[in-house]
């Protein structure tokens, strides 16, 4: 096998510019954006002063614990890491453990739960990290139509009980899963259920406990996973389950990767305290997100046709990657930074420009963004007509 030829072929065929997706599609021409609608910091906490102060104090005064770089399996009951797991688990109502990332959390749960040949039922919009874990366990994966509990039930009736995996909020569309219906199917067919709450944890429910708490379904779900690189503005992951110790001891990412360092734990505890008291931020986010989605529906084709969902994620469906890059760069030149989503994050035929608002985006900013999208659309149509 000539590996160099395969690499050359990739760059020659992947994009028209032959420079790869990072330069030809994802690159933003402006380095001074004033409206940021392309990240996951929904509550605008990444630079929260109290959080940063506690981190800085820890770095300057860390004398009690030697900050080690080692596998999480070597943590003791006396580590700040373990103490935070116990406190967060008691607050949530399930045992828990911190993973190195949301990706590591999802892969680790698959390692612990799945066996070769196990039937696993996944929503078609499920995050790629789960597939990574499923492939390593050689599970039999059956995809069902997104948010379609009836199709899920048909698949289970055909292949038999197994594991169901859904997300409470999907990262490309902002659609909410029909969690009550999914739980009903899970119970009726004696299945296990994993729910990824990455895009709802911190944003909904009392003190931001998430949608499962809002709907009273926490005890009906076997495993809850979370990426803390969303509302919690920190690179870490979280798993809630009564089998937390079992997952730890069977998750390869947990065993074979270095755990979170103490300053990560200091940041997580500080942000957790802020988020519990952040009802005002959550309310502002829902208000601006609902308004932004309503305005975007007037000027673009929104993924799923969702009109009134109070979710900070709004995906705009593009014709192809060239059109996606055009809109992305047009907005960047106007000081607006969104997030282009292409394969493998989406279907190759349906690239998406994803907009994510945070709680401090103003209604005026929301209008500026949607009007810029409208301006690009009108210019593109005029340009296409002129070429005829």
TrEMBL record:
Entry superkingdom: Eukaryota
Residue ranges of every copy of the Aminotransferase class I/classII large domain listed in the record: 37-359
Keyword entries, A-Z: Pyridoxal phosphate, Transferase
CC cofactor: pyridoxal 5'-phosphate
GO molecular-function terms, A-Z: transferase activity
Keyword Transferase: yes
Keyword Glycoprotein annotated: no
PANTHER family given in the database record: 8-AMINO-7-OXONONANOATE SYNTHASE (PTHR13693:SF100), CLASS II AMINOTRANSFERASE/8-AMINO-7-OXONONANOATE SYNTHASE (PTHR13693)
Protein name (Swiss-Prot/TrEMBL): Pyridoxal phosphate-dependent transferase
Lineage summary: Eukaryota, Fungi, Dikarya, Ascomycota, Pezizomycotina
């Amino acid at each position: 096998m000539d590996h160099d030829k395969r690499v050359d072929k990739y760059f020659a065929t992947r994009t028209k510019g032959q420079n790869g997706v990072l330069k030809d599609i994802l690159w933003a021409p402006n380095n001074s954006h004033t409206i940021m609608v392309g990240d996951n910091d929904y509550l605008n906490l990444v630079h929260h002063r109290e959080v940063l102060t506690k981190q800085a104090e820890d770095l300057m005064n860390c004398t009690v614990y030697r900050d080690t770089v080692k596998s999480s399996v070597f943590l003791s009951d006396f580590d700040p890491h373990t103490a935070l797991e116990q406190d967060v688990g008691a607050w949530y109502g399930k045992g828990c453990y911190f993973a190195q990332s949301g990706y590591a959390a999802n892969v680790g749960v698959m390692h612990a739960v799945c066996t070769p040949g196990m039937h696993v039922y996944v929503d078609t919009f499920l995050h790629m990290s789960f597939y990574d874990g499923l492939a390593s366990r050689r599970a039999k994966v059956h995809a069902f139509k997104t948010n379609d509990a009836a199709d899920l039930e048909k698949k289970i009736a055909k292949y038999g009980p197994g594991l169901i995996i859904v997300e409470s909020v999907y990262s490309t569309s902002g659609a909410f899963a029909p969690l009550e219906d999914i739980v009903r199917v899970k119970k009726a067919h004696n299945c296990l259920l994993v729910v990824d709450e990455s895009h709802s944890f911190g944003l909904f429910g009392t003190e931001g406990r998430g949608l499962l708490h809002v709907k009273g379904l926490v005890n009906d779900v076997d495993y809850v996973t979370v990426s803390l690189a969303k509302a919690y503005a920190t690179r870490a992951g979280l798993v809630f389950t009564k089998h937390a110790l079992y997952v730890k001891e069977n998750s390869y990412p947990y065993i074979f990767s270095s755990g979170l360092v103490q300053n990560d734990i200091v940041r997580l505890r500080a942000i957790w305290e802020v988020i519990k008291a952040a009802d005002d931020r959550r309310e502002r986010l829902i208000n601006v997100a609902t308004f932004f989605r309503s305005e975007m529906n007037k000027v673009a084709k929104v993924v799923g046709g969702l009109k009134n969902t109070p979710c900070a994620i709004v995906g705009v469906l593009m014709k192809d990657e060239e059109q996606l890059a055009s809109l992305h760069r047009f907005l960047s030149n106007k000081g607006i930074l969104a997030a282009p989503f292409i394969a493998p994050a989406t279907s190759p035929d349906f690239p998406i420009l994803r907009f994510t608002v945070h709680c401090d985006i103003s209604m005026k900013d929301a209008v500026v963004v949607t009007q810029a999208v409208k301006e690009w659309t009108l210019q593109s149509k005029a340009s296409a007509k002129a070429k005829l």
